[in-house]
Amino acid sequence: FKSFIFLSLIMSLTIGCQSNAKRIEEVLRDFTSHPIVMCTKDCVTFCSDSTYNPQTINDAILKYVCYIDSSECSPCILKNAYKWNDYISMFKKYGNDISFLYVISSKNYREIISQARESGFCQAIYIDTLGVFAKRNSHIPKESMYHVFLLDNENHIILVGNPLTNKTIENHFMKIVTKRLEMTSI
Question: How far apart are alpha carbons 77 and 119 in whole angstroms?
Answer without folding.
Answer: 9
